[in-house]
Design brief:
This protein is of the alpha+beta class and 434 residues long. It is 27% helix and 28% strand. Strands 2, 4, 5, 6, 7, 9, 10, 12 and 14 form a nine-stranded mixed beta sheet that branches. Strands 1, 15, 16, 17, 18 and 20 form a six-stranded mixed beta sheet that branches. A hairpin with a 5-residue loop joins strand 9 and strand 10 (224-231). Helix 2 (113-120) crosses helix 3 (159-179) and helix 4 (248-262) packs across helix 5 (285-304).
Amino acid sequence: MTAGPVPVAVGAHVRCSRYLPVLSLLALGCTGVFQRALPDRPATHWVKAAGPELRVGAAERDITPVVGGYMAGFSLARTSEGVASPLKARAMVLEIGDRRFAIVGVDNLGVMREDTDWIKTGLAGFANGDVFLCASHTHAGPDLIGLWGWYFVTSGRSHEYLRQLRKAVAEAVAEARALAAPATLVRGSGRLLPDGTVRNTNYGACFDRRVEVVHARAVDDGRPLGTLLHLACHPEALSRRLALISADFVGAMCDGWNARGHGQAVFVNGALGAMVSPRVKSKDESGAREMGAQLLGIAEAALASADPLPVDAIEVRRRDVYIPLDTFGLKLGRLTMAIPRELHQGRAHTSVGWLRIGSLQAIAMPGEPEPGFAQRVRARTGVPDLLVFSLCDDELGYLLREQDARDREFAYERSMSACVRAGEMVEEALVGAR
C-alpha cells in the first residue's frame, strides 16, 4: 500500500456524539461495499540467504511526537501533556550473501498491518517479508490504531505522525546499513526473579523469565555493532493517570545499554499478554528508570556469559492469515471510521513468520500472546528456546488459547482480541509456515 495511511479526523474534541448513530449507519452501509475478497490462497514468503560473511549494523532515530495528541492504551480520549522520555525507532540490519534483513523496534503500543506495509515501502533494498517491525507496546505513546480518540467519534491517529515515523524508520535502517561491518554474534540468556520487577497479574509467576541478548561484535576490533534485547513485559511502569509521553522501561534499558559501551540496542517484546506487567513502587518515570536499570543489569550478566552464535545462513518464512474481526470495540471503531482497518469478507489481513539466524529461531506474532499460549507453540514446534517477537508487523490484540478466551478470568483480554480463535489461527499459520 504505497498511497499512505488512510485519512481520518485527528485531535478534534468536537462534542458531536449526537451524530454517532448517523455516522455508524453510514459506515455500516459502506462496510459491505469497501471490503476486499479473500484470496484463494494466502500469500507466502520464503528466503534463505547464505554466505561466508555476516555484516551487522544498527542505528536509531527520535520519533517523539508533538505534545497534545491522543495517547494509545489505558483510557479513551487521553491526550499527552508533556514528555517524560523520548520515543525511538531502533533498527538492526543483518546482511549475508546477497540479501539483507532488518529488525526494527519502535516505541509505540502497536502499528496496524496496512501502516506497517506502507512504512516498509520506504526501505530501499529490502523485501517486505525480510523486515520485522515490532512495537514495544508502551502505553505512553501516540495512538496509531485509532481506538483511543474521542470516544469513537474521532480517531486517535495522526497522518503527520505516521509520516514522521515512516521517515525515521527509513533513516534508521539506512544508517544501520551504512554502518554494517563484518561481524560475529554471541547469544546470552539471563533470568528474571519470580518475585522481581515483572509479574503476571492474572497468574502470578506464570511468565517467560528469560532476558535474551544477541550481540554483534566487529570482526576486526571487537567493537559493538548492535544488540537485540528481548524479554516479555508490558511497558506500563507509568501510571495511567499520567499523560506523559515515555518509552517506559524500554527507553531506560536501551539508552543505558549504549551508555555503558555496549552499542546500539534494539528492543523486541515477547509473550507479554494476559497480563505480564511491571512491579514497581513508583508509577512514574523514576519507576521506569529503576526497572530499566534492573533489566540492564540482568542483560549485562547475560552478555558476560554469552556463547558464540555462528551464522552461515539467515532464513525467513512468512504466511498470511485472515482472522475474523468480531470484537465490539474494534467493530465499532471501524464502523465510525475511527479505525481505518481493511477487511476481507469480515477478516483482517495479517501475517506470521519464522526467522532463523544460525541456530537462533524466532517467531513473529501479530499481537500480544499469553505466556501459556506461547509455551504451547514452543512445545508443538519442538523448539524450547524459541523467541517470540510480539506485536510484529501488526496489532490484533491478545492471542490466547480458545479455552482461555472463553474463560471469565480473561474477559478483558477477550474484549481486546480479534476473536476467540485468534490464537489458534495464528498457531496453525505458524505451524504451516515452518
